[in-house]
Amino acid sequence: MPGVKDNLGSLGRTVRVYVLGIILLGVAIAAYSVLDLVRHPVGLQWLILVALTVASGLPMLRIPAMPISFSISDTFNIAAALLFGPSAGAINAALDGLMLTSRMASIYRSIDRVLFNMAAPTVALWIASQVFFALGGNRPLEGPLSALRLLALLTLFGTLDFSLNSIIVAAAVSLDRRKPILSIWREHLSGVWITYFGGTFGAMLLMLLARLGTVNALILIMPLPVILYVTFRHALGRAQDQISHLGTVNKVYIAAIESLAHAVDAKDQVTHDHTRRVQDQTVRLARALAVEDEGEIQAINAAALLHDVGKLAIPEHILNKPGRLTPAEFDIMKRHAPIGADILAVIGLPYDVAPIVRHHHESWDGTGYPDGLAGDRIPIGARIIAVVDCFDALTSDRPYRPRMNDRDAFQILSDRRGKMYDPQVVDAFVAMHGDEMVATSAQPLTLVNAVPVPVSPPLERADEDREGPGLQTFFNLGRALSGATSPLRLGEVLWIHLRKHLPASAFVLYAYDGANDTIVAVYTAGDGASGIDATPIPLGERLSGWVAATAQTVMNSDARLDLDEPAREHSSLRSALAVPITSNGRTVGVLSFYAAAPNAFDDAHRQLVEAAGRAVAGGVPNLASDLAAQGIAQRS
User: Fold this and answer.
1) Are 164 and 123 in contact, with CB atoms under 8 Å apart?
2) What stretches of 419-566 adopt beta strand conformation (E)?
3) What sign has the CA pseudo-torsion 150, 153, 156, 157?
4) Which among 128, 221, 432, 533 could disulfide-bond with 161, CB atoms 3.0 to 4.6 Å apart, if both were Cys?
5) Using CA atoms, how far apart are residues 507 and 509, in angstroms rounded to an integer?
6) 406 - beta bridge partners?
């Protein structure tokens, strides 16, 4: 006889009403049965069945991984109903339910649980026995074809008793867990039918043997419930072993997933801890969108953690580039989605993770990559991750721009609703975080490297009417550099000769410190240089650190990324031009110019500073060692 472990006080309104209804029906049947037994006593022999019901209800069995338990006392409950009538059977069933609940842990025992576990079998057994006697009369063993007739009646009785009891319990669990009742019944209760039919036909033997005398009949029937108990205990033990094995296998899969995620974090400075945040938000959003299938939830959970695993195959200088990606670089970056799907397909995870990872950069209108899927053809998990991924990227510091506030990020999601992202997913995500939408921004946005970057109108340069630097400029710069006897003097020369050709309001000369693999600011100039952090910058970090690590120029990246945290909010700098100084194939320093206007630098400015960098590296004797020495001195 199954019973549940749900606390009525913590359940929703619908299931609370349902449970109360079953309890009231059970109380009404029990009250009627007591009055009926008082008016029509059945004798002391029934008390023997009561005692056996209580005794056999003590060794309770539990269904693994579900709040459902059952006992093997059904033989005596059914025998009481068939030998002494529905009222006697109902009282036996109520007592059996009481014993079932008494064997549960104290944390699960409450008045609503006790009453429900008493009421459910009482209702089922009373109705089934009423149908049995209504069709078979008070003497079902008499008349022509009595054996076949009794067999049919008992089959009907067992079917009704099992169906009613299991459905009552499954409905309570279904309402509480918000899962289909048929799914609950099939998965956890359908296999319990053997105890009901075993008890039913055990009671049939007891009815037949009762003609030899009640005591003798009970002695002969006693081994049957014991055999049923041992059989079920063995079967449930094997089921528990299988569940434990599956749990172990699942832990191995989770460990593999975690290892891959840590590998991505270790390589990608851009997305450090990004995957974990996306995972937490994605599962919440999936449940908010009524994704109920547990396998799909697990797939989304794993995909959220592993959606960027393909970045392991992307070169680090592209992955961590602080400026905008070129079209060729962006084509390489786009490969991370299909590569990630291929990696996961080889692993063979037990969840359908690979399609979600492959398509998490598809767009609702079909303009995404890698396959140009549109609308509902995009897996729901991929649509969910796309929204969460974008929001986290917008509200995180990246090498190519500082973080946005939540309101601006929500506005961008709203602007892309129905274009890049599934409208329902965006609406659910916003609702999950509260109503933080703001009025539409007038500034258009474009997507670069899957991250929104403001598109500014063409800016007028302050020196637009002036001629660009000519040969005389380079001649004067070269002559001045030849007289620079220290990194400090070198910085002064560069600032004096280049500032009139650049829209820069600040300049920093960084020196490479090989002993600690960092760059150090050895010269600063200009109004906006006050926010430059004096502490060494590890190679690869911030904007200038990336330039030093990759020996590649960055133009018009956000200048605030080179500033220390307190200075970012108040700085007027908005764009940067950073050029490496290389000598004998290695970086010895960085020239970083900063401007107040976005996109202030153009190709002419880049060529000028790169030429200056080459002049510095090739035209000044011992520059590399001087810069390194100056860097070490600054560090000390």
Assistant:
1) yes
2) 445-448, 451-454, 506-513, 518-526, 537-538, 554-557
3) negative
4) 128
5) 7
6) none
Burial pattern 79-97, b for ≥16 Cβ within 10 A else e, equals bbbbbbbbbbbbbbbbbbb
Kindly report the pTM of this predicted structure: 0.49
**Strand, helix or coil for residue 579:** strand
CATH number of this structure's domain 3-221, picked from the four choices 1.10.1040.10, 1.10.10.10, 1.10.1760.20, 2.60.120.230: 1.10.1760.20
> Are residues 61 and 101 in contact, defined by beta-carbon separation less than 8 angstroms?
no
**Cβ density class 460-482: b for 16+ within 10 Å, e for less:** ebeeeeeeebeeebeeebeebbe
- pLDDT classification of 231: cutoffs 50, 70, 90: low
The pairing of strands 575-583 and 451-454 is unpaired
Give first-to-last CA distance, the chain, whole Å: 79
* pLDDT bucket at 159, cuts 50 / 70 / 90: confident
pLDDT at 388: 92
CATH classification (class only), 471-635: alpha beta
| Positive/negative CA dihedral, 363, 366, 371, 375 | positive
Fold of 247-454: Hypothetical protein af1432 (1.10.3210)
Q: Do 247-454 and 471-635 agree at the fold level?
A: no
Contact assessment for residue 284 and residue 238, using Cβ atoms and an 8 Å cutoff: no
The Cα 572–Cα 596 span in angstroms is 6
Q: Quickly state the pLDDT bin for 560 (edges 50, 70, 90).
A: confident
Three-class DSSP labels, 383-429: HHHHHHHHHHHHCCCECCECCCCHHHHHHHHHHHECCCECHHHHHHH
Q: Could you tell me how far CA 452 lies from the centroid of its own chain?
A: 24
Backbone angles phi, psi at 164, to 5 degrees: -65, -45
Residue 456: predicted pLDDT: 35
Domain locations in the chain as residue ranges: 3-221, 247-454, 471-635
Q: What is the pLDDT of residues 112-156, one digit of tens each?
A: 778 888 888 899 889 988 998 888 777 665 655 567 777 788 888
Structure tokens at 508: 């920093």
Distances in whole angstroms, Cα of residue 599 to Cα of each of 149, 206, 328, 529 = 93, 94, 21, 18
